[in-house]
Design brief:
The protein has a domain of about 80 residues: Elongation Factor Tu (Ef-tu), domain 3 (Beta Barrel), CATH 2.40.30. The chain is α+β, with helices and mostly antiparallel strands and about 400 residues long. The chain is built from seven helices and 21 strands. About 15% of the residues lie in helices and about 30% in strands. The strands form five sheets. A six-stranded mixed sheet has the order 10-11-12-9-3-13, with helices on both faces. The chain has a six-stranded antiparallel barrel with strand order 14-17-16-15-18-19. A five-stranded antiparallel sheet has the order 5-6-7-4-8, covered by helices on one side. It starts with about 35 loop residues before the first strand and ends with a strand. Strand 5 and strand 6 form a beta hairpin. Helix 1 packs across helix 6 and helix 4 crosses helix 5. The radius of gyration is 21 Å and the shape is globular.
């Protein structure tokens, strides 16, 4: 039997925070109560629990089997101008010059020493207009500093993002645009749609490992009417039994899906290779920040998944191998789908030989009890990452 029945984000301290320099969502008044617990990400408040005793599991299963609405804090930055491609090619390790309009791509930004500074999704809205949707951390000033000498503008479009996630999410989008969602609106595609009467940028992306979309406010020709958008989406989602959820259900699912969080799972000092993200580095492109260091650095992986049948991995729990401390947990949860504890383990050093995969280690809980665990590759659920890629069938759900 497992020793912990807690789930991700179930217990933590809460404090009152003044709103100075912290942005509150324009949708917050539609769901916030005196019991809502918020966290800060990208200097934005977002709801992590509706109340201290919220049970995330019903919403988790609705996310897996139906559709959920989330107000998320991710932050898009806009890069426009004749040199937009040149700037992004310089600061990102992925290719940008061959990114088509209406396409999205995962992109890492590295420091000169090859360590990861930021991760996010770059999207091409027009020939000279890009959005880079960043994770937690300061990046606008850094990007503007590197834009000096380029014919380019780097701005914060003040866009808040709504995610609609789950197998029925495309049906909700189809209803919100009045029907006719094209069959070629595939995973990591994007475009402008008339969503509930407003022209907005929508992408086939998300943070759950399920079929999903993201709707970007203030992306069209007019400022977004947030209340009208919220009401319109809920009305379109009603036939699909769509509900709003805090991040609690999303948090469990993103760990099962092997999605990494910059600054926590992608700890300072990790390179794309040590974080298990080396496949996103394109050494065949022209010089980019960190390229020389990445060509010389070791390529051993240090960040892996961890499966424990008897305990839930939690941040900073120690991990040992052959009675020696070898690493620590960055995040963890109890997987309702697998009914085991899952999390990410950051190893202090590479394992000689064939690496850490499939090795049996020990997880040390906060009471000092040892639990046998297995090192696994990510993701834990849907190993081939096919769930978010299903094709639109035109009937409210995708087809494999």
């Amino acid at each position: 039997m497992r020793t912990s029945r807690h789930y991700y984000l179930e217990s933590y301290d809460s404090v009152s925070v003044a709103p100075y320099r912290i942005s509150r969502s324009p949708f917050a008044h539609r769901y916030t109560t005196d019991e809502t617990i918020h966290a800060v990400y990208c200097n934005r408040l977002y709801p992590v629990k509706s109340s201290p005793d919220e049970d995330p599991i019903p919403h988790y299963w609705k996310l897996r089997q139906g559709v959920m609405l989330y107000d998320v804090p991710e932050k898009p930055l806009e890069i426009t101008g004749p040199d937009a491609v040149r700037l992004l090619e310089r600061v990102l390790v992925c290719r940008v010059d061959n990114l088509g309009i209406g396409r999205c791509r995962y992109g890492l930004a590295c420091n000169d020493d090859g360590t990861i500074l930021m991760d996010g999704v770059v999207m091409r809205l027009a020939p000279d207009r890009f959005w880079y949707v960043i994770a937690n951390g300061e990046f606008l000033s850094w990007l503007r500093a590197h834009a000096i000498g380029f014919d380019v503008d780097v701005n914060d479009p003040h866009s808040r993002v709504l995610q609609i996630q789950g197998p029925k999410s495309l049906g909700v989008l189809d209803a919100a645009i009045g029907g006719g969602l094209p069959a070629d609106f595939k995973y990591f595609r994007a475009g402008f749609f008339e969503v509930c009467g407003q022209t907005l940028w929508v992408s086939r992306t998300g943070w759950t490992g399920e079929v999903g979309i993201e709707i970007y406010c203030n992306s069209g020709p007019e400022p977004t009417d947030h209340d009208a958008l919220w009401d319109g989406l809920l009305e379109c989602g009603e036939p699909f039994d769509m509900e709003f959820s805090t991040a609690s259900s999303m948090g469990i699912r993103r760990i099962e899906s092997g999605i990494l969080d910059n600054g926590t799972d992608i700890e300072p000092g990790l390179t794309p290779y040590s974080a298990g993200l080396g496949q996103f580095v394109r050494h065949d492109k022209d010089d980019f920040i960190g390229k020389a260091a990445l060509e010389a650095v070791g390529r051993s992986q240090l960040l892996f998944g961890l499966i424990c049948p008897t305990a839930m991995p939690e941040p900073q729990m120690g991990v040992s191998y052959a009675d020696q401390h070898v690493g620590h947990v960055t995040i963890g949860t109890w997987s309702p789908t697998l009914d085991v504890g899952v999390g990410y383990v950051r190893f202090d050093r590479p394992l000689t030989g064939d690496g850490w995969e499939a090795k049996t280690v020990h997880l040390h809980d906060y009471e000092g009890t040892r639990h046998e665990a297995t090192v696994d590759t990510l993701p834990f659920v849907d190993k081939e990452k096919q769930l978010p890629r299903v094709a639109w069938s035109g009937s409210g759900a995708g087809t494999g």
